[in-house]
Structure formats: structure tokens, C-alpha cells
Amino acid sequence: MANTVQARKRARQSEVRRQQNAGLRSELRTAIKKVRKAIAAGDKVAANTIFTENQSTIDAVAGKGVVHRNLASRTKSRLSAAIKAMA
């Protein structure tokens, strides 16, 4: 455990940030799963609608630095390509 007051405070701050980031990461994963589920269902219109709604969530999580912006961009690109590839 930390010995100094400063180190104890940093440990408290780190724990709060870790919990916040875990929540945001979970939100990101849920948003991606919703789109993938819609794609698997085969309904292109619904999949496109859900994707459009969840793009902002993906961008927001990346904007806060929880995941890298390239990961968010790559994820959106792959989801978009999967929707476009639907018959």
C-alpha cells in the first residue's frame, strides 16, 4: 500500500478512473454486440438503424481515451462493411 498522502490519493483516483473506464468499455462492447446481433438477424434496415444510433457511443468512448481512436474507427468501418455486404 502507498505510504505517502500523495500516493494514497493517486491510488484512490486511479480506482475511480478504473471503474469509470470499465463502465464505458462495457457500454462500447454492448453497442457493438447490438449491431452484430442485428446483422446476424439479417435485417439490413434494422442493422443500419442500430449502427447509426451506436456510432456516437463508439466515438464518445474513444474520445474519452478508454480505447484508441483507431480501434473505434476500425470497428465502425468493419460494422459498416458487414451491413453493406448484407443481401
Structure description:
The protein has 87 residues and is mainly alpha-helical. It has a single domain (5-84), classed as Methane Monooxygenase Hydroxylase, Chain G, domain 1 (Up-down Bundle). The chain has 3 helices and no strands. Helix 1 packs antiparallel against helix 2, helix 1 runs parallel beside helix 3 (69-84) and helix 2 (44-63) runs antiparallel to helix 3 (69-84).
| Helix/strand order | HHH
Q: Any idea of the CATH topology?
A: Methane Monooxygenase Hydroxylase, Chain G, domain 1
CATH class: Mainly Alpha
The appropriate CATH architecture is Up-down Bundle
Domain count: 1
Ends apart, CA distance between termini: 57 Å
Number of helices: 3
Point out poorly predicted stretches: none
Secondary-structure blueprint of this entry?
Blueprint: H1 5-41, H2 44-63, H3 69-84
Summarize the structure.
With about 90 residues, the protein is mainly alpha-helical. The chain has 3 helices and no strands. The chain has one domain (about 5-85): Ribosomal protein S20 (Methane Monooxygenase Hydroxylase, Chain G, domain 1, Up-down Bundle), CATH 1.20.58.110.
Features:
single chain, 87 residues, mainly alpha, Methane Monooxygenase Hydroxylase, Chain G, domain 1
